[in-house]
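User: For a benchmark we're assembling, each entry needs the component sequences followed by a predicted structure for the full assembly. Here are entry 17's components. Please fill in the structure.
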Amino acid sequence: DIQLTQSPSFLSASVGDRVTITCRASQGISSYLAWYQQKPGKAPKLLIYAASTLQSGVPSRFSGSGSGTEFTLTISSLQPEDFATYYCQQLNNQRTFGQGTKVEIK
Amino acid sequence: QVQLVQSGAEVKKPGASVKVSCKASGYTFTGYYMHWVRQAPGQGLEWMGWINPNSGGTNYAQKFQGRVTMTRDTSISTAYMELSRLRSDDTAVYYCAREHSGYPVGVYWGQGTLVTVSS
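Assistant: Structure for entry 17:
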């Protein structure tokens, strides 16, 4: 099984901050990676797929990069509605999610 | 618009089975794979598997092999996920998610179904 490790697991930030979340895969997955945002009591929302393609309707302050085993999700200027938990997911071999990164208000 | 409406909350005893439904509308049901993902209380997301509604073919996560069965009824555009031999650690919200049109990732999600396993 391919394991995904996100860092950090918890992040405290302020509105306007630039935020970066890292996702590392236990083996190479090319660009078969997606990022989701989840708010309490809600289903996950797709933000980015194919490592760097922004899903339609997602604000451009979200961006993704990486390939192989290391990937990043960047929020260029954190907005109040961005406080949530973020998950990466690999699609190279079945599917696996990272453990999540909770972004909270500083 | 695409909608996935799941069945209501369930309470089951250990050892029992549960079957969750996911009724799709707003698109051609047989055109997109359907995934199932679960989330235990306060925990992360866990992928369970997918079903190809066109062929009925399935792909299950190894962890659930032998305990999970995914089926569909194309006449009513509904996918099902049945989990057997339930344990307390199967208590979770179960989601169905339809694949994106151009990439094998879940883009449309059901509202979730809480399954509680308790004696």
